[in-house]
Design brief:
This protein is of the alpha+beta class. The chain is built from four helices and 19 strands.
Length: 407
């Protein structure tokens, strides 16, 4: 068997290099240009990000630690008062070039890594329901697919949000008519201080029988082929990344009837880290990026049972002030900023802090084929490679066994 392994040692690096330069990779936003990754990269086909929405430089920083892919990751910070222009709520957001605009029927693969730090607070007292302790606002979304209205005046919430509360990583799929979460799905248990490796296979459509979302977190198929509309009719989706939360969270002037501050006096800063964004046409194209392997992968426990349909609204509800482009991720002028529903779990900042792995373990074999079905077998490329190596070894042995011809 030694010749097989020798041949594999030669062919495997070549296969990996081929995957990393695949024409099926559409775009990378992995922050490897450092601080210049966040804005100015607006040409179609250009990697990294086009526009940012911040009011303080500290809100969006390229950092060398913690990272999980490449040299840099991104740190996002939001606190009370971080309202960009006349837009809704507190935000530290960025958008990519026009490469990331998705039309009806567009099918894409996405991959990124998110880390909510150990001190992350996932729910806060709801500013307008302080007499109801169970009424909570969540800590905000980190990834959304926004709608652009094709130059018309935009209204309402984005079609899709992903974020985390105190216990779970969640997804909100929005009902356009109400701007509320049509579905709130608990995808996976949140592990603070751990890089969650997230892979999303999406087909964007306003038709419920065509559109789907297919998702893995840390190699677990948490959302298998979930059909439903995920784009508004006549509009396009585009990717928005960063931290976005209710603008009332952190108000230092808000007090209870006894005079105690609801949120403290420091603006209640929230922080998340993101890394390794890549978009491709195929599963293999987004799995080509190597992640750091300085710790064993973590197998998270099962998520809390799904809370069902949300009764509130996602963070980006309201009426826009004008036509929206990728630099305007949710311009709204509502008097009472909405949030992502009433979360009735008591906040437990220390919950889920076990597990500090920086090595999510997602492979092509753990994700299955392009149809979204899980598979425990080897991917086709690897199977073919092994078969080729075996054939080469057999041919060599046949040559060795042939009789020597003598004169």
């Amino acid at each position: 068997m030694k010749p097989i392994f020798a041949m594999m040692a030669v062919l495997v690096p070549a296969l990996s290099a081929l995957a990393q330069t695949s024409s099926d990779v559409i775009w990378k936003g992995d922050f490897e240009a450092g601080q210049s990754s966040f804005s100015g990269n607006c040409t179609a086909g250009e990697n990294q990000w086009c526009n940012d929405q911040i009011v303080r430089a500290a809100q969006m920083q390229a950092v060398t630690s913690p990272t999980v892919q490449g040299k840099y990751a991104a740190r996002f910070e939001v606190k009370f008062g971080d309202k960009y222009r006349n837009y809704s709520d507190s935000r530290a957001l960025m958008t990519g070039p026009s490469t990331l605009w998705e039309d009806e029927g567009s099918e894409r693969w996405y991959r990124w890594q998110s880390m909510w730090p150990v001190g992350y607070v996932g729910t806060y007292p709801k500013w307008d329901q302080l007499a109801t302790p169970s009424a909570r606002s969540n800590g905000g979304s980190v990834v959304e697919w926004h709608h652009d209205a094709n130059g018309a005046v935009e209204t309402g919430s984005a079609p899709l949000y992903i974020g985390a509360n105190d216990a779970n990583i969640w997804m909100c799929i929005v009902d356009q008519a109400t701007s509320a979460c049509r579905e709130t799905i608990n995808l996976a248990t949140l592990i603070r201080g751990h890089w969650h490796d997230i892979v999303l296979h999406a087909k964007w459509s306003s038709v419920s029988s065509i559109g789907f979302l297919d998702m893995w977190i840390d190699g677990v198929h948490v959302l298998p082929m979930h059909y439903g509309s995920n784009k508004y009719p006549g509009m396009r989706n585009y990717l928005v990344v960063g931290l976005y939360r209710n603008g009332e969270i952190g108000d230092p002037n808000l007090t209870y009837s006894n005079g105690n501050h609801v949120y403290g006096t420091d603006g209640t800063p929230g922080v998340v880290y993101m890394d390794g964004f890549i978009v491709g046409k195929t599963q293999a194209s987004v799995l080509s990026e190597a992640l750091l392997t300085d710790a064993a992968p973590v197998t998270p426990p099962a998520p809390t049972p799904d809370a069902g349909t949300a009764t509130g609204t996602p963070p980006d509800a309201g009426v826009a002030t004008g036509p929206l482009d990728p630099s305007d991720a949710g311009a709204v002028t509502v008097a009472n900023p909405a949030d992502a529903g009433n979360i009735v779990t008591t906040p437990t900042e220390s919950s889920g802090t076990s597990g500090t792995s920086t090595s999510p373990n997602v492979t092509a074999s753990s994700l299955g084929g392009g149809s979204g079905c899980s598979s425990g077998g080897l991917p086709l490329a690897w199977t073919s490679l092994i078969g080729f190596a075996i054939l080469m070894v057999k041919a060599r042995r046949r040559r060795q066994l042939q009789p020597v011809k003598r004169d």
